[in-house]
Fold this protein.
Amino acid sequence: MKKSIGAKALVMPTPVFVIGSYGDDGTPNIMTAAWGGICASEPPAIAVSIRPGRCTHENIVASKAFTVNIPSVSLLKQADFAGMFSGYDTDKFVETGLTAESSTLVHAPLVVEFPLILECTLIHTIELGTHTQFIGQILDVKADESIMNDLGGLDTAKLAPLAFSPLDGGYYALGEYVGKAFSVGKPA
Amino acid sequence: MKKSIGAKALVMPTPVFVIGSYGDDGTPNIMTAAWGGICASEPPAIAVSIRPGRCTHENIVASKAFTVNIPSVSLLKQADFAGMFSGYDTDKFVETGLTAESSTLVHAPLVVEFPLILECTLIHTIELGTHTQFIGQILDVKADESIMNDLGGLDTAKLAPLAFSPLDGGYYALGEYVGKAFSVGKPA
């Protein structure tokens, strides 16, 4: 039996994207966003929605670039901090102890401690009520050796990513591997 | 030490959205998509990217509506099946044994067995290389009583959602609760 919950932004999982951007004066900033996801395979592109008025919003509009830094569970506190305070009055790199490094591809900072980072150039901007959807073309992905397997591939379990649940406002770790896509559902 | 992986659509987590739509003749169809996510809070909106040529793509362009059905781990095989075969030559409701029910709000089918369903009306269509991004305004969320707690709220653990990992092409269950958003990262 189903109940109507109303018009709400409720799905699972939503990601924990830590968005890196530079201010006009070159100050690096980070902000955590759960509204977003991959939106095309080729050219690879990712969408991130941010409210007008945020420092990151102003930065992306001006610089036309951003990074998407994926935290491991071990970076939970830093990721949550970056979602609570504004870059307008807080230097979030100083406060979290995280390290900013310039991308060589786009005008945006990488967060060195994060194991998986996407470097993006802005290709579309779509106004959607409370949020602006920024679509970035992914120019490169940087992965830490600590999340690679012996064959040089990326290891999901080693990445140990977080998910955010809009259902209860909680963060969750990733659970067990349950099957291979385009395979587990094949008719017997 | 980080390595360059190239321009690829690699993040975690990505969702397992089972998209419901009607064909011209009223045939219900489902298709599984991992490229998407919430894109605005008010009005609540969700983005789903689908390749031109898919039956679901044609259906959404014509009907201007879709549902997003969130599977529990117990629906893994059906969700994967819906991503492997085309609605042009397969009746995926018949083959999976799932049940289609008409939404009363939009011209799209709900998948009765799925515990969490969003009913969406198309508000934006953005062409992005390989994929078309469909943005739907969420008109209502239907939740099964089985995923509710005693207070009528939604229980993330009871939902038991799936995540897809583009890193290894695997499906993953959700893991343990690790902290409250806008709280766990507060300075001591």
